[in-house]
Amino acid sequence: MAKILLTGAAGYIASHTWLALQAAGHEVVGVDNFSNSSPVVLERLKELSGRAPVFEQVDICTPALAGVFERHRPDAVVHFAAFKAVGESTSQPLAYYRNNIGGLVNVCETMQAQGCRRLVFSSSATVYGVPERLPLTEDAPVSAVNPYGATKLMGETILRDLGASDPLWQTACLRYFNPVGAHESGRIGEDPRGTPNNLMPYVAQVAIGRRARLQVFGDDYDTPDGTGVRDYIHVCDLAEGHVAALRRLLESPGSLTVNLGTGRGYSVLELVKAYEQASGRPVPYDIVARRPGDVAACYADPAQAQALLGWRAQHDLQRMCEDSWRWQSMNPQGFQA
Ligand code: NAD
Ligand code: WQD
After folding, report:
1. What is residue 308's three-state secondary structure?
2. Residue 153 and residue 142 in contact, taking contact as beta carbons nearer than 8 Å
3. How far apart are the first and last CA of the chain?
């Protein structure tokens, strides 16, 4: 069993991964600056795991990160900390490059100086740009279609170059598809600040009555019902994907890049229907214009994750909606309640 440092530890995906790593027997140290999360997460993690989380409030772009490594001496890092709003990245590109690229470089330099060279990186299906062929395999062409996507693509390049420069570096780039859902307890989940950018949290807020209607961005795509198709993946499956990737890095040499998706796409309207069923609430919607930059369909070929990590997603769309709804209905105002 290993000691794992999580950056962005209080965030949506990291908090679920924290529990999964502990359940697999690892020791976890978390850092976060709460730029997009709440300290209440730590109380909930304590309640769910029965142990006080080991945590330091640190900005990963600062020299203070070195002190965390000196105090805790992690065997590996799972690097979640980043800004993630696509629209905001086009209006504030420098903030995204500074936090996402500057942060990654500081994490890697600090690791190098401390002799820790195992890193799991939160990449994204956004690196596939506009897919030429579906399902997406890891050897599909990559491109950046917005500054956020550019930071993920550049992050992968930095790690590849690092691995080429020194074979002691072992990295796993995990290309997440569309993470949704929440821990089955309903005690942690996704808590977007302001208006949600992503579909499921928006649908959840309509179902609970925080927002009146969903806007469906286009129904004239070349898909079965005309609305966009995506590969939604339960955040707890995603968390297990990180446990599997770390196991691989700890047990075998080399680096890897894998998709974490289910392999199955659902349309916006299919998701809305599943959510209505799970919540027992209506989700009224209007069809509006397409959102600029959206693609018609995007879903993974998850075979490589199965072959290399022995991992595959377990939860279906109904379960993703049920767990999202439990979190939303138990915490109507998120962690602020
Ligand atoms: P999130 O915003 O909930 O979590 C990110 C966490 O990092 C937050 O708690 C934030 O406070 C923290 N953070 C940001 N900058 C920091 C800094 N400089 N120092 C310390 N902490 C900092 O987002 P998430 O959805 O959990 O995403 C986690 C990772 O996964 C991100 O790298 C994101 O780009 C990537 N990703 C997310 C999705 C998605 O749809 N949610 C999809 C693909 C990839
Ligand atoms: C899903 C579908 C929308 C909101 C984004 C990022 C990507 C990754 C995951 C980080 C699309 C439609 C949405 C709404 C709608 N993040 N939609 N009404 O765009 O696939 O991916 O999050 O790496 O980089 O781009 O996810 O949840 O925003 O949209 O109709 O109010 O729902 O058009 O078809 P997307 P999403």
Report:
1. helix
2. yes
3. 36
Residue whose entry in the numeric block shows the structure tokens 């397409």: 290
Catalytic hit among 12, 96, 128, 148: 148
* Angstrom distance (rounded) from CA 65 to CA 63: 5
DSSP 86-151: HHHHHH-HHHHIIIIIIHHHHHHHHHHHHT--EEEEEEEGGGG-S-SSSSBPTTS----SSHHHHH
User: Whole-model pTM?
Assistant: 0.99
C-alpha of residue 39 to centroid of ligand 1, in Å: 15
232: pLDDT confidence band, cut at 50, 70 and 90? Answer: very high
Nearest to 301 by CA among 251, 257, 243, 250: 257
Instruction: Give residue 237's pLDDT.
Output: 99
Structure tokens given for 179: 């993470």
Respond yes or no on whether the N-terminal peptide bond of residue 201 is cis (omega within 30° of 0).
Answer: no
Average pLDDT in the 316-333 region? Answer: 98
Q: ipTM surpassing 0.90, yes or no?
A: yes
Q: Which residues contact 65 (CB under 8 A, 6 or more apart)?
A: 31, 58, 59, 106, 107, 110
Active site residue 148: yes
90 lines ligand 2 (CB under 6 A): no
Distance of CA 295 from the midpoint of ligand 2 (Å): 9
Distance 96 CA to ligand 1 centre (A): 12
What's the rounded Cα separation, in Å, for the pair 178 and 195?
A: 18
Q: Write down the pLDDT at residue 255.
A: 98
Element (H, E) at 296: none
